[in-house]
Design goal:
Elements (H helix, E strand, L loop, with lengths): L18 H15 L4 H14 L24 H11 L4 E3 H10 L4 H8 L7 E3 H10 L5 H12 L10 E2 H13 L6 H15 L6 E2 L12
Antiparallel strand pairs: 1-2, 3-4
Helix pairs in contact: 3-6, 3-7, 6-7, 7-8, 8-9
């Protein structure tokens, strides 16, 4: 025997008081982030929300990067999300990083292509993965370092994008070491000159205005 239709009135429906704000914030985050797959991204969003982890949300709406070497789908904004989610650990598990990559609706084959630049098995130092990601966004090492500064800086958007020189030098040596066309001597020559140009500062920070192209040694 079929059950009779149940009639509800407003007084019978309980709406959790926090639900409207949760849905409002979720909608704003989705609009700002523009995920390619809303369902996949939503799963990552609510998983992070339930765990109290950093949410996969862009700081602002951005246009795709048109100068990428390959079509990774990656943007500075998406890399910044990953940095917020992973930077609390010096070394990250590739399985966890891969899931966060998927939650941002990025192609998994592109994730593997980034790792092929410096193959590893189960873990990778986070700053190195971030550096590899930055290297896929632009056409030069200098451009990759600019992206890195903009992601790591605590300066407001549009500011000098300063980061500690030690961090800059560590990443520059790492990326330069992966390029067979750049010798160790050239790398150290560049970093020595760069350090001399900013050593008068007490904070030891380097910003975008300090960039200059490395000179070839003779």
């Amino acid at each position: 025997m079929p059950l009779p239709d149940t009639m509800f009135c407003a007084q019978q429906i309980h709406i959790p008081p926090e639900l409207p704000d949760i849905l409002k914030q979720f909608t704003k985050a989705a609009i700002r982030t523009q995920p390619a797959d809303v369902l996949q991204w939503s799963a990552g969003y609510f998983t992070a929300l339930s765990r109290g982890d950093p949410l996969p949300i862009k700081d602002r709406l951005e246009m795709p990067v048109a100068t990428q070497k390959t079509d990774t789908g990656l943007t500075p904004g998406l890399l910044k999300i990953l940095h917020k989610q992973c930077s609390h650990k010096q070394v990250v598990d590739l399985a966890d990083l891969e899931q966060k990559w998927k939650n941002l609706c990025l192609p998994i084959e592109k994730f593997r292509a980034v790792l092929e630049l410096d193959p590893c098995k189960k873990q990778i130092e986070w700053i190195k993965f971030l550096a590899l990601g930055c290297s896929t966004l632009g056409g030069s090492l200098n451009t990759a370092m600019k992206h890195l500064c903009e992601i790591l800086t605590e300066d407001p958007d549009g500011g000098p994008a300063r980061i500690p020189f030690e961090t800059y030098a560590y990443v520059y040596r790492y990326l330069a070491g992966l390029d067979p066309d750049i010798s160790a001597g050239e790398t150290e020559y560049y970093l020595t000159n760069l350090k001399e140009s900013i050593e008068s500062r007490k904070n030891g920070m380097i910003g975008l205005s300090d960039f200059f192209f490395p000179k070839r040694t003779v």
